[in-house]
From TrEMBL:
Residues 280-374 form the Bacteriophage T5 Orf172 DNA-binding domain. This is Bacteriophage T5 Orf172 DNA-binding domain-containing protein. It comes from Acidithiobacillus thiooxidans ATCC 19377. The gene is yeeC.
Length: 397
């Protein structure tokens, strides 16, 4: 048998020995395509084109600038025709963004697009084709997406905002305490962020432990970024803050305060008003108050006072407490049931519109449960879920 040369041997083995065709595209065209593919991936993930704006993710801002520049390139329609199924090139640039007027020394330098945009033939306009390290960083940061069950979390954000406004929560600079746990609240990029879930511990490339988080934002989006990524973002954000636990002050204690009462009563009232809304929901609408005297005296003449809906009331529950601070106790109920406060306007005896406070659309058994939490000091560990009409603990939120 005659000895075969290398080509004949490879051919006998079924290996194609035809020389590889070299790419007919220039480096510039390859970079344009690579840059556009990143934008396509963003579109596939989010179902929209990337947008400009300081509230946007750094990579979305990059893609928005890049797309604007690609649209200006005369060869782009022909070069990218086979890739542009969504029609991104035919869309107009975002009306709110004048790319050429942007601060190139800050935003564009940060995005890595180049030092100037005047020379449209300069491929550095699209030079930010991310390295492996940058791609890994993007994966760590994670893109934000709409939160499908945001209705579960919206009452929590509303409650936290009320607590911040009332001074019950404090916002501390992130760093002194860099821990991140489920149930923590932060301010990141000017937005409230809530850590809803923490996944299983994983090993980061540097050998340190990490975990995926489910972070919900007050604007109705969420992300699954890594814990260390959130820590880095909070460190870098000069306005990044950790929100402390609500501090409502001592309800019971030995030290006397101006609004303390030695023995007090929490009372729960039900209105006898004939107002259509009240009549329809009478079994659920309750007024919660605190008095240091007799409840009967407190509610005398209720039918003449707008705060009692200009109608008689019936006492459905009372709770005796000792050495309590009346203002803090009333604030607790407003914090806990604020989202369930009824929005009702009536006219007082003089025809003036009045919006009575302290009336809540809350079942009586939930109020009773809240009082028990006040007595054992665990009231700050629960929140009222408007959808299910029950108190939830930190682990159930």
């Amino acid at each position: 048998m005659a000895e075969m040369n290398d080509d004949e041997l490879l051919d006998a083995l079924g290996v194609d020995v035809a020389p590889m065709k070299s790419s007919s595209r220039t480096p510039r065209e390859e970079r344009i395509i690579a840059g556009f593919e990143d934008i396509l991936r963003f579109h596939q993930t989010h179902g929209r084109t990337p947008l400009h704006g300081e509230d946007r993710d750094i990579f979305e801002r990059l893609y928005a600038v890049r797309l604007d520049q690609i649209r200006k390139l005369p060869e782009a329609p022909t070069l990218l025709a086979g890739l542009d199924a969504p029609g991104l090139l035919s869309g107009a640039a975002a009306a709110s963004a004048d790319v050429d007027a942007m601060d190139e020394d800050t935003l564009l330098a940060e995005l890595g697009i180049g030092d100037g945009l005047a020379d449209q033939d300069d491929v550095t306009v699209l030079r930010h084709v991310r390295s492996h390290v940058e791609k890994r960083a993007a994966e760590e940061v994670a893109e934000r997406m709409p939160c499908p069950d945001f209705d579960r979390f919206q009452p929590l954000f509303e409650q936290v905002e009320r607590e911040l406004n009332a001074g019950y929560r404090t916002a501390q600079r992130f760093g002194r305490n860099a821990s991140i746990a489920s149930g923590d609240y932060f301010i990141l990029g000017g937005q409230l962020a809530y850590v809803a879930e923490i996944g299983e511990t994983i090993r980061a490339p540097n050998g340190e432990s990490d975990a995926r988080l489910r972070v919900i934002y007050a604007n109705g989006t969420e992300s699954n970024l890594l814990r260390r990524s959130l820590q880095r973002a909070l460190y870098k954000d000069e306005t990044g803050r950790r929100l402390g636990e609500p501090d409502l002050g001592p309800l019971f204690g030995d030290a006397s305060e101006p609004d303390d009462i030695e023995t007090g009563t929490i009372y729960v009232l039900r209105s006898l008003s004939s107002h259509p809304f009240v009549a329809e929901h009478r079994e659920l609408i309750h007024k919660i108050g605190v008095t240091g005297g007799k409840v009967e005296t407190r509610i005398a003449g209720a039918e003449k006072e707008a705060t009692y809906l200009l109608a008689g009331v019936e006492v459905v529950a009372t709770y005796k407490l000792h050495n309590l601070n009346r203002t803090r106790l009333e604030n607790i109920f407003h914090r806990l049931f604020g989202a369930a406060q009824i929005d009702l306007t009536i006219e007082d005896r003089f025809g003036h519109p009045v919006k009575p406070r302290e009336w809540f659309l809350v079942p009586l058994h939930v109020i009773d449960e809240a009082v028990q939490h006040i007595r054992d000091g665990s009231i700050t560990d629960v929140v009222y879920d408007l959808k299910s009409a029950r108190l939830l603990g930190q682990t159930q939120k």
